[in-house]
Design brief:
By secondary structure, the protein is an alpha/beta fold. The chain contains eight helices and eight strands. Bound molecules: D-xylitol-5-phosphate and zinc ion (ZN). Zinc ion (ZN) binds next to strand 2.
Length: 220
């Protein structure tokens, strides 16, 4: 099973973002995870399309934009124009999920859906075929550096089961991305439960050596 490491820029030093990006690229990151927060869906405010555009200009990695915003359909065109390769919306924030995912696809990006820890997997059953990835939140979204919620492990395993059943009908993989509280210890647990993509903010960017931090996650 492939394992992808996606450092989350939320914990990077924004005063030297280009250097931070270069350090994780050189250290073997597979994906760059970018967190967009609006102060409504989550209590925090982070960045918008302008910064995403600047990020996309200085990296060759796929840019995975996680929209923690209400009514994300209002901004998907802006983020894709800014260069986002993958765009995930929260199921809790999106009334017409099917339409929004189709629009992300039509505009040329890979659609994903993110689920809060309290949101059941049944919320995405009807849109699985539209998805490139499912983002399972293992903390309540809004801030970096929070503690991993242990019940996420069973949820990852159940989603893995759901996707395996589906795999008999389709060749295309749907990735399971786990976001929040990932460190060397929890990385091993979420991998065992069936995660493909590990998002890590604090564990990578608050480590004195991001390359070493990513190697530790991969080893786990
Ligand atoms: C949380 C964000 C995460 C965050 C993860 O709301 O969606 O991507 O940056 O950070 P860590 O790895 O520090 O929990
Ligand atoms: Zn995120």
């Amino acid at each position: 099973m492939p394992c992808f490491i996606a450092p989350s820029l939320l914990s990077a030093n924004f005063g030297r973002l280009a250097e931070e990006i270069r350090s994780v690229e050189e250290g073997g990151a597979d994906i760059l995870h970018v967190d967009v927060m609006d102060g409504h869906f989550v209590p925090n405010i982070s960045i918008g399309p302008l910064v995403v555009e600047a990020v996309c200009k200085v990296t060759r990695l796929p840019v995975d934009v996680h929209l923690m915003i209400e009514k994300p359909e209002r901004y998907i065109a802006d983020f894709i124009a800014a260069g986002a390769n993958r765009l995930s919306v929260h199921v809790e924030a999106c009334t017409h999920l099917n339409r929004t995912l189709a629009e992300i696809h039509r505009l040329g990006a890979q659609p994903g859906v993110a689920l809060n820890p309290s949101t059941p997997l049944s919320a995405i059953e009807e849109v699985l075929e539209e998805l490139f990835q499912v983002v399972l939140m293992s903390v309540n979204p809004g801030f970096g550096g929070q503690r991993f919620i242990p019940s996420s492990l069973k949820k990852i395993a159940r989603l893995r089961g759901m996707l395996e059943q589906r795999a008999t009908q389709s060749e295309r993989p749907i990735w399971i991305e786990v976001d929040g509280g990932i460190n060397a210890e929890t990385a091993a647990q979420v991998r065992q439960a069936g995660a493909d993509i590990l998002v890590a903010g604090h564990a990578v960017f608050r480590h004195p050596n991001p390359a070493q931090a990513m190697a530790q996650l991969r080893q786990a």
